[in-house]
What we know:
The structure holds 3 protein chains of 3 kinds. Chain B is α+β, with helices and mostly antiparallel strands. Chain B contains 5 helices and 5 strands. Chain B has a 5-stranded mixed beta sheet with strand order 2-1-5-3-4, with helices on both faces. In chain B, strand 3 and strand 4 (about 55) form a beta hairpin. Helices cover about 45% and strands about 5% of the residues of chain C. Chain C has a 3-stranded antiparallel beta sheet with strand order 1-2-3, with no helix packed on it. Chain C is globular, with a radius of gyration of 23 Å. Classes of the chains: A alpha+beta, B alpha+beta, C mainly alpha. The interface between A and B is large, with 63 and 57 residues.
Amino acid sequence: MNASVILDRRKVLAGGGALIVSFSLTSAFAQDQGAPAPPAPKPPGSLATAPYLDSWIRIDADNTITIFTGKAELGQGFKTAFQQIAAEELDVAFDALKVVTADTKLTANEGYTAGSNSMHNSGVAIQNAAAQVRALLIAEAAKRLAVAADDLRTENGGVIAQDGRRLSYGELVAENMLHVQAQPVSDLKDPATFKVMGQSIPRVDIPAKVTGGAAYVQDLRMPGMAHARVVRPPSYGAQLTDCDAVVIEQMPGVVKVVRDGNFLAVVAEKEFQAIRAMQALAANAKWQESARLPKQDDLPAALMALPSQDKTIFEKNDTSVSGSKTIEATYTRPYQSHGSIGPSCAVAQFVDGAMTVWSHTQGVYPDRAAIAEMLRMPAASIRLIHVEGSGCYGHNGADDAAADAALIAHALPGRPVRVQWMREQEHAWEPFGPAMVTKLKASLDNGGKVADWQFEVWSNTHSMRPGGAGAMLAAQHMAQSIKPPEPKPLPLPEGGGDRNAIPIYKFPNARVVHHFIPDMPVRISAMRALGAYHNVFSIESFMDELALLANTDPVAFRLKHLDDPRGRDVIEKAAKEFGWQRGQQAPPNRGYGFAFARYKNLAAYCAIASEVEVNRETGRARLVRAVAAVDSGQIVSPDGLTNQIEGAIVQSTSWTLYEAVTFDDTRITSIDWQTYPILRFDAVPDRIDVHIINRPGKPFLGSGETGQGPAAASLANAIANATGKRLRNLPLTRKRIKDAIDA
Amino acid sequence: MTTLKVNGRDHQVDAEPDTPLLYVLRDDLKLNAAKFGCGLGQCGSCTVIVDGKAVLSCVTPLVLLEGKQVTTLEGLGNVSAPAPIQRAFIEEQAAQCGYCIAGMMMRAQALLQRVRHPTDEQIRAELGPHLCRCGTHMRIIRAVKRAAQLMDTAALAPTNQGIAR
Amino acid sequence: MKKSGIIGGVVAVLLVGGAAAAFAIAWRPPIAAIEPAAKRSFDPAEVKRGRELAALGNCNSCHTVRGGKNFAGGLPVPTPFGTVFSSNITPDPETGIGRWPEEAFRRAMRAGVDREGRHLYPTFPYDHFTNVSDDDDRALYAFLMTREAVRVSAKQNQLSFPFDHRVMIAGWKLLFLHAGAYKPDTSKSAEWNRGAYLVEGLAHCGACHTPRNALGAEQTTASFAGGDVDNWRAYPINAESPAPVPWDADALYTYLRDGFQPDHGTARGPMAEVVSNLSAVPAGDVRAIATYMADVFGAPSPVRKLQGETVLAQAKQNAAPPPESEGGKIYAAACAGCHDSGRPPPYGGIHLGLSTAISAGDPRNLANIVLSGVAPVEGERSPIMPGFAVSMNDRELAALLGYLRLRFSRQPAWSDLERTIAEARRTQTAYVQNSAGPTNAPADPAQRDKP
C-alpha cells in the first residue's frame, strides 16, 4: 500500500501501433433514415453509468491485467469473486490478474457497496467488460494474423490461431484500444465451459490476514504519520462549554488539540500518547447535555406516537374470497448495533490543497462529496481510497471516521493523520439499525388458506446515505455545522423500512402499509438487510401462527401460498435436507422451526430450517443446528456463498437472541461488549449446513443479506415449537422466554 | 528504553512502562497481526502469546513483559512458509472480514501447544474470550482441528524420507 | 479439622449413649417408595411457590453442574474430609428422587436422612434446612417433582476412612443438629422474623459465612464470623465485617437483589450464583433477608461510620499519586483504566478503596479474581474483567496485591502473598471449573449516575 504511486486509468503502456475502434451504440439498431434513433439500450450493470471498457480493465504490454471495481471488499470475498469473473471471461489464469477496488482516482463510481447489489452492478459490469475486451482482442488478432475471428481462440492470456501462431494480450493491446464504450450485449461464455467461475477459489485476501500482512486501514503506516483521537460528546446534541487544551498540549508527544465548535480532537506522535491525551481531555472537557431520548422500556409506543407519512405500498382485492378465522399480532424490534469488531479508522493527508483519505467507507464517491462539502473544497481536490476495515454490515462509523481524519488533517497540513475510534465511541455513535414495529392481521378461509392479509410497518428511514456532509458527525459538530439531511424513504422495489414488507406469497386480498417516520431520536442508518430483517421475521413468524391455526405443517402451509418455482425449490430443499417431516415431534426441550424469504423479493432466495434447544429452568435458547438452502442465480464462488450464509445465520442468531441498544433519557448506555453482548463460542450451534442451488447462466442475485430474516424467524418458530409459547418482541432473550414458559 | 523480546529477537522500545503491549507491537514495532478491537479485554482481537500462553495484549502493559518471550502471528510463519495453524486457516477459508482471526489463531496455537487433540468442547471453551461478528465460528473450529492434524503430519515428517513438509 | 476428633466424637456417643441408644440414633427406617407422581397432580401455585423457595435455597447452585442438566447433581464439593458430590434431585425414578414420597423429602430436609434411611452428609446443609416449615417443604417437593427427570447416576464420594461410613454422621448429628422448624422471636418484627426464617433456613448463609469446628460443624457462638468455601473466603457478615463502608439494610437489599451495590462492589465468585437466584424471588423476601442481616451486622460505631464516609469521599476524587513501586506501575497500567475511570459498577470496576476484598484479612478472594477475571454471563449485559493469571507471574501479582492493600485499605499488610497466590493459582478453584455459573447477570442500573 504505497501512497505515492500515481496511477492514471487512461494510461496504457502501449505495445505496437494504436488501434482505434470507433463505435456507435446505435449501429446495432439501425433505423430508417430520418426516423429518430431510439435511446440506445444501456449496457448491463454498472457499465450503464461507466461505459468505457478501460474504466474496468487495463492490460499492460507485459501482459499485466488489472481489473477495476468501484465496489469495496468488505470481507465478503468480492475481490476474489470479481477476479474469478474477469479471469473466466478474459480466458486468463486466475492468478494472472489483480483487482483494484474503490478509489475515486482509479475506479468507476458505483455508489455504495451495499444492498447486496455488488454482483448485480459490478460483477455484471466486469463480466461483460471482460467478455467484450476479449472480443476486441480477438478482432485485433484476426486483423494482424489475417484470419477470421471465428478461427481464433483465447487461452492463458493469448490469442491463438489454428496454425499455432500466438499473440499475447499485451502484444495485442494498444494505446486507447480499450477506451471504447461497452455494447449492451456481450458474448458471454457458456456456463458449461466455466473453468474458474463456479469454483471455490481460495480468497486472495486471506493469506495476508493470517500472516500479519498489511490488510486493513488500521494497518496503514506512513512516514510522518501522527495519531489522533476524537473526544466525542457524551450524548447527542451535547454542547462543549469548556475545555483546557493548553494543559493537554503539554502532555508528552501531543502535537495539537483541534477544537472546532463541538468537535474536539487531540493529535500526538505516538498512539498511546494520543490515547492518554484523549482521556485527559475528556476528563477536563465540560459539556452541556439535554435529555432527549425516548423511554427505552416503551420504545414501540414512543415510535408509533411520532408523526408518520403513511403509504399503502401494496393492495390486492378479491371480494369473492373471505376468511372465517382471524388472528392478529404485533412484532417489535429494538435499535440494534452493527457492532463491528474493529472500531472505525481512517487516515487523511492534506498536502498542497489536495486531500487524500484512506477509509473503509462503503462508498468512496459519496463520501468524497460529503467531505468536500464539509471542508468547502472542490471534490476534484479530494481522493478517497477504500482500504478494508473490519466487517461493517452497513453504515457504521467508517464515514464519520473519514470525516474526522479529513477535518483534523486539514488543521495539520502536510502530515498524514490517523484517527482510530475507541470501542465506546463506535458503540455509542455509530448509526444503528432502526427500531421497528409491525402489525399483522390475517384470516383463513374454510380451506385453511389465507383469505386476507394486512401488514403495517412503522419505521425510520433505513439509510442516511448519501447524506452529504450533514450525515457525518464531524460536520454536525463543527462550529459552522451542517445539519443532517432530511430523511427520505428508500424507494421500492428495494425499500428501506418496507424492504420485504410486501409478502412474496400469493394472497387473494392483501394490503401493506408503510408508516414512514421522519423523526430520528436515535441516530440510525443502514444495517445489513435493512427492514427485511424485521419484516421477514414478522411475516415468517406470522405464517407459522397461521399454519398452527390452520392445523397445517408450516412448510406445507408456505408451499400452498407460493407460486415462484425457485422459491418452492429452496423451501423443499431445506426441508428435505433438514429431515423435516409432517407431523414431526421434536425431542423434549427441543423445537423445529422453518422460514423462507426472497431478499427484496428480487435478490437471492433463502430457506432455513432450525433445531433449537430451550432450557426450561433458565429460559436459555440455543440453536442446535440449522440447514439452509439458497438460490443466488449463477454461482461465482460456492465457498464464498456458503461462508456468507453461515455467517448470516450466526450473526442473525446473535441479533435475535441477545441484541438491543440501551439508553437512558440522555445517553446511549450500551457502549462496550459488557453492555451490548453478542454471541460467543458457548452459543455456537453444533452444525450449519448450506445447500446451494446453482442456476447456471441466470443473473447473479445478491446474497450477502438474504439469510438474516429467515434465520431470525426460523429461530422464533423453533422456540415456539419447543415451548408452546410465541414470542414476538426482539430480542428473544432468556428472560423473555423464561417468563413466557412460566406464565 | 526497554528491551522486549518479540518473535525471537530483542527490540529496543522507547515507550512508557504503562503502554499496553498492543500499542508497542503495532506502533513501535509496526506489526499488524495483533489488532485493536476494544482495548478493554473483552474481545480477544489483541491476543498474542507470552511465554507460551495466550494473553490479551491490550491489557498487558510493558512493565509486565521484562524477560518474557512474546510471540505474535508473524512469528509463527509467513505466506511462503506458513505454520500449520496458518495453513489450516487458509485451507478452511476460515475468515470473512478476518479482523478477529489473528487473535483466534494465537489462542488456538497456545491451546494446541498444550493439548494436541482438543475436543470441540475444549476449543469452544478456550475461544470463549473471543468475539467474531461475521459469524465465522464454525470454520474457526474446523480450522483449529485441521491445524492439529497438520501439526501431527509435520511432527511425523522427519521420520519419513522424502516427504516434504 | 482432625480425623481423630470426629472418631472420638462418635466413640463418645457410642459409649455415653449405650449401644441401644446409639443404634436408635444411627439407624433410621426406610420409607416405602412410591410410583413417581404425575406432574399434573401438583397445584401450579404450589409449584410456583416451590420455584421461589428453591431459588432462595440455591438448590441449583449445588445440584447443577456446568454442562449438566438442571438438578441432576454431580458437583464436586471439596471438604476437609474429602470430596462429596451433589446428588440427582430430579424426579427420575432410578437415579433421582422420583420414588420419594413427600414424607421422605421432608425427613431429608428436617433430619438429613434419605428415603432408604441412610444419613446424608451435612454437605447438604440440613442443619439449616431443618428450619424450613412443612408448608414450604411441600412446595419445594411440588417444584422438584415437576422438574424434568434426568437419568444420571450419582458420582461416588471420595472420602477417606472412616468418613466414607455414613454411620459416623449419626454422631455428628447428635452433637450438632438441632432438628425442628424455625420458631419466631415474638419480640421482633414480622419482617425480621421472615428474614431470620429464610437466612437460618433455606438461604443457609451461615453454611458459608460461619466458621466451622474441627468436626466440620458451624460454630454457633461465632455465627456469621466468616467461613471458607472451596478456596474462597466468605467474609464475616456480622460486626466483624471488613467492608470499608459499613453495610445497612438498604445496601444489603440492593446488593442481594441487583447483584451489586455502588459502595461495595459486584458479587462475584460463588456469591454471584446466590444473587443471581435472589434476583428472581419476591422482593419482599429479599427485603426481609436484608432486614435480618442488617441486625446481624449491627449498627456501625460512630468511628466506623466516619471511616466509611471518608472512604466514600476519597473514592469520588480523581487524584491519583504517580506510581513509584512496581505494584503501582502495574496498577496504573493494567487496572486503573477500568477501576479509576469513574464508570460505576456493575460495568465499571469498583473503585478499589471501596473493595472488601482489599480490606479483608484474607487476600484469597482478591487473588482469585485477579487471576481468573470475571467472565460474562451468556447473552446478558454483565461485567467482564480480564484475568491476569497468564500475564502476571506470582511475584508480579504479589507486588500488585501488596500495592492495592497499601493504597486502598487502612489495614496492615498481608503476609506471605506469593504463597497465597501460588496456592490460588494451583487450586484452580472447583467453583471456577465446575460451577454452571450465574444465570442472571447483575441488574441494569435504571439510571446512570448523572454528573
